[in-house]
Description:
By secondary structure, this protein is mainly alpha-helical. It contains 6 helices and 2 strands. The chain folds into 2 domains: about 1-105; about 105-140.
Amino acid sequence: MLGYERNKMSYNLTETDLQVMIDWERSRAASYRLSDKPDNVDIVVGFIRSKFGKITQEGLDAAVATNFRSLDYMPGFEHPVVKQQIAQKAKDAADKAQAERDRPVAFSADSFAVDTPLERFVGCLLLWIVFVPLYVSSTSRPAADPIAECAPLI
């Protein structure tokens, strides 16, 4: 929670208040760490001033506990509840992506639908029966008559 000097309420912070905040931040660094956005200071200090009047470590703990969803954290140092929410969102997104991958390929046009593997196989077989002979007949060339090629033109 750096950036105390850049926030809108910095004129209300005394050296003692600032030292209490820095000490509190250092003692909580292992569990969570707030980013240096000035809005974090505004939220925390505003809550403490309205509830307790004086900035203390207990007041800082209460402010974070009450407003933890509104605060911005350093990546990887989120509040435990926020970490759990991030993990749940990631799990939900992975489950949704897996469900999309597991959904079978289907085709439908009005009342005509191809949904099962057997229907897809029959469709491919019909396409093969119709188009392979057409392709072969259009690309094959008739054999040249060797006698006609050798005969002199008179």
